[in-house]
């Protein structure tokens, strides 16, 4: 089937408008149906479906969000189906069916099935270290406390494939303001759940578990940096990092750590799982950069899931305007 570019069917002012903030009314069913329509034969087939989450898909009103806030705000109406550069959303089935989640498996089409009984509730996130107000947050309290927004972001995996995903979540900066990092805090260290009983991939001893990631405090404070609790207007499914994961759209996908149980403010640069596994291949920064190739492959282009052919990879994944100044004066070949 011939793919009609979203830019051809979406009014200029809509798809050109910068980031979209939404509060929670819209036509979920229409949006998902239309997106699924755009699915291509080349996309991998999912091994599970949304019904597995047990979440309803009915529209939520702003009032009901204020009341319980346990359900995701619904995604934008069917007229918004692209990111701010006009790229069409990746279809839902691919987003939930083609995943990297090594705690379950290294096979992208296997993560959905192997994680389908993963218990993401009850769940707490411990925030501590160099902060004035450490706390243990229940996931339901996080959802109530911080107004969730929709952010349509490009996800660029270091393996040179990419997707466009409509996340729901809140800026990490809001949580940081709450815990008040001290002046000594320079980095954040994130940790994924370590549960060998439910995560069969933890038997893979090529990696040092738990999965760890890190950000500099100023990167974490950037308005683009999101703690996501949903996508396509539904709660996250396990394979996408339920119940809460990081999304840092200008960095390679592996920085966007899933199923977070702990966030520590620290003085020293954390060593991530990938830095420990292959330090010459994966650095701390991992900013998307078409000029710095992976030792084993080019980062100059990427395969957008659902499309044939390749696209040019953009500096900072297209978010240079928002983030380039964070790295002023740094040699990005050295700090890769
Ligand atoms: N805990 C954990 N987080 C993780 C991973 C993982 O294996 N474990 N994979 C990363 C990689 S390599 C990518 S590309 C993204 C994929 O996110 P998605 O499956 O939701 O698209 O998650 C990242 N976060
Ligand atoms: Mo990735």
Q: Could you estimate the helical fraction of the residues in percent?
A: 10-25%
Report the sheet with the most strands, covering strand number, pairing sense and barrel closure. 7 strands, mixed
User: What's the structural domain tally?
Assistant: 1
Shape from CA axes?
A: globular
Q: CATH fold name, please?
A: Sulfite Oxidase, Chain A, domain 2
* Small ligands present: the ligand Nc1nc2c(c(=O)[nH]1)N[C@H]1C(S)=C(S)[C@@H](COP(=O)(O)O)O[C@H]1N2, molybdenum atom
Structural Rg:
19 Å
CATH superfamily heading: Oxidoreductase, molybdopterin-binding domain
> Which regions contain 5 or more consecutive residues with pLDDT less than 50?
1-69
| CATH architecture verdict | Alpha-Beta Complex
The tally of beta strands, per DSSP, is 12
Could you spell the SSE succession in H and E letters?
Answer: HHHHHHEEHEEHEEHEEEEHEEH
CATH class: Alpha Beta
Strand content: 15-25%
